[in-house]
Amino acid sequence: MPALSLPSLLSRLAVLACAATALGASAAQVDVAGVKLNDTLDLRGSTLQLNGAGVRYKAVFKVYTAGFYVGKKVSTPEEALAAPGPKRVAITMLRDIEANELGKLFTKGVEENSPKTEMVNLIPGLLRMGQMFSDQKQLKAGDTFTIDWLPGTGTLITVRGVPQPDPIKEQAFFNALLRIWLGPVPADWKLKDALLGKQ
Questions:
Q1: Inter-axis angle of helices 99-113 and 116-136, to 10 degrees?
Q2: What pLDDT, on the 0 to 100 scale, is given for residue 27?
Q3: How far is the CA of 90 from the CAs of 14, 16, 100, 124, 183, in angstroms?
Q4: How far is CA 105 from each of CA 47, 63, 96, 155, rounded to the nearest angstrom?
Q5: How much of the chain, in percent, has pLDDT values that exceed 90?
Q6: Nearest to 153 by CA among 37, 45, 71
Q7: How far apart are the first and last CA of the chain?
Q8: What is the pTM of this model?
Q9: Contact (Cβ atoms closer than 8 angstroms) between residue 18 and residue 27
């Protein structure tokens, strides 16, 4: 094989570097407290992008990481709620917690961030979600769950890779869950900013 001249060699190296960059971009990940989140994901045929991700703290303890995926980047709670198409909140536990306790925290978050007039319509969904968490007994560090909004299907919660039965059809329920993190009284203000891409 003939030796390559320096310009030729540099040219080939540049092509290889570009190819590596392109491959890296297609599988880019964000590291949040040791949890890897993909920059993009496919949800039922729709490409979603990671809008933002962060850590939920309770006092000084890290409880879980959360990532918010949406079709097009948003920067306000209003844009997040109004964004069309599928959406996902992806959560990875950073510590062991009683699943029932987490369910209660979520219910409290919904109550604190939803208009009082909407609460009566949210109760059936909250009861089902509470039962689902109760059935899980405990979530351990490293366990994952996702909350997906799928137009035409509803809110689908998947725990440790297992989709829970019977999606909750009303979009108001998904929006109420999203307000746990993005509402006026969020679970964690820094996490709210992170999910909206402000960090």
A1: 170
A2: 59
A3: 37, 34, 19, 23, 17
A4: 30, 12, 15, 19
A5: 73
A6: 45
A7: 51
A8: 0.85
A9: no
